[in-house]
């Protein structure tokens, strides 16, 4: 496969080093080192992203706008191959190459408050710089990706059609999801009344999607396939979900899941530093809700996948998606317990 792709970019496969890179669940990513430069090669998951050329077009529209309006901002768009294509469709799938940013690094686990602050600033900055861009120009690369109404319906249908043993094992988790249905109802209200505006939203704000410099200051955000019109609660919510606990969704010792309230404050400070004057008062009133929304939706997605025999996320061991869902529901429980303290922290 590399023998086919790399020459399109004028790279001799026998004169470079290629190794797997990162730990995303959806796309395949490799680091390609030639004698003169580093690249990130990525194969788009075409079962998830049904219209890869929409992504490519989004990236080029955003690049054009940002290069024009904010030339000092580093926006990492795919490089063009020898024929001028930034996305290649081959019999092995869809591929693109990004320049590797020298002297940058990514972080996989948030263990410093400053990392949460820097990341939140970068995701906030991205939406702020694009607040003058007409969001309607962007393709929706994953329809209904963060539509909790639909996710909830899909979850109910997964429950209905699940194999008996899986449903039995999941019954306590299913009950907890049903008990907290008010989280879906709040989303319904936001969605149906257009309470908050559509913005250019990243939709995958985990820490590994931020590039840091040698002084651990944020440089920019990466992994832009899910950049599309959305609500700010998606970005803030996924930061809360993935930064407020020291352990990830992969942790199975559930007693270790605790909330780091100071990290919530760091996310708030970093995001507001950039978006504070752009967000409406109504949006600000949903800042804490954002965490509930995303944690709940992720739990629901993992559990639905478990009930559907792991067709989406895959499974590395028996019950993998069950435990991921359990982990997220315990995180939700802890988050709800902290709500009063979090409100005080941000003066809400
Ligand atoms: C997927 O591939 P990755 O890890 O960046 C998923 C996110 C989930 C995440 C959970 C397109 O992201 O929505 O939050 O797994 N992306 C897609 O780890 O489904
Ligand atoms: Mg991703």
From TrEMBL:
The keyword Transferase applies. Keywords: Transferase. GO terms for molecular function: transferase activity. Residues 17-245 form the Aminoglycoside phosphotransferase domain. InterPro entries: Aminoglycoside_PTrfase, Kinase-like_dom_sf, Pseudomonas-type_ThrB. It comes from the Bacteria. It holds the Pfam family APH. The keyword DNA damage does not apply. PANTHER family: AMINOGLYCOSIDE PHOSPHOTRANSFERASE DOMAIN-CONTAINING PROTEIN-RELATED (PTHR21064), SLR1880 PROTEIN (PTHR21064:SF5). This is Phosphotransferase enzyme family protein. The lineage of its organism: Bacteria, Pseudomonadati, Bacteroidota, Sphingobacteriia, Sphingobacteriales.
């Amino acid at each position: 496969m590399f023998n086919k792709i790399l020459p399109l970019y004028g790279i001799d496969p026998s004169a470079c080093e290629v190794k797997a890179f990162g730990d995303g669940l959806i796309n395949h990513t490799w680091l390609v080192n030639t004698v003169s430069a580093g690249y990130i090669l990525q194969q788009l998951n075409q079962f998830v992203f049904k219209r890869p050329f929409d992504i490519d077009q989004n990236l080029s529209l955003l690049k054009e706008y940002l290069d024009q309006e904010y030339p000092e901002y580093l926006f990492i768009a795919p490089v063009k191959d020898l024929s001028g294509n930034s996305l290649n469709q081959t019999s092995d799938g869809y591929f693109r190459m990004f320049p590797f940013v020298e002297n940058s690094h990514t972080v996989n686990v948030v263990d410093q408050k400053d990392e949460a602050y820097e990341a939140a600033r970068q995701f906030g900055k991205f939406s702020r710089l694009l607040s003058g861009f007409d969001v309607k120009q962007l393709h929706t690369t994953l329809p209904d990706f963060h539509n909790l109404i639909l996710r909830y319906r899909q979850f109910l249908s997964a429950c209905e059609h699940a194999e008996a043993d899986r449903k039995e094992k999941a019954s306590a988790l299913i009950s907890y999801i049903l008990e907290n249905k008010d989280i879906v109802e709040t989303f319904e209200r936001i969605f149906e009344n257009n309470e908050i505006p559509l913005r250019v939203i990243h939709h995958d704000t985990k820490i590994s999607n931020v590039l840091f410099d040698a002084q651990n200051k944020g440089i920019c955000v990466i992994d832009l396939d899910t950049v599309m019109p959305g609500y700010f609660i998606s970005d803030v919510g996924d930061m809360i979900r993935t930064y407020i606990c020291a352990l990830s969704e992969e942790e199975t010792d559930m007693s270790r899941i605790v909330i780091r309230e100071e990290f919530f404050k760091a996310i708030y400070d970093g995001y507001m530093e950039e978006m504070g004057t752009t967000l409406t008062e109504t949006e600000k009133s949903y800042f804490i809700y954002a965490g509930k929304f995303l944690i709940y939706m992720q739990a629901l997605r993992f559990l639905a996948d478990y009930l559907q025999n792991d067709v989406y996320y895959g499974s590395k061991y028996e019950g993998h998606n069950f435990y991921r869902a359990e982990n997220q529901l315990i995180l939700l429980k802890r988050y709800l317990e902290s709500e009063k303290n979090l409100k005080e922290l941000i003066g809400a």
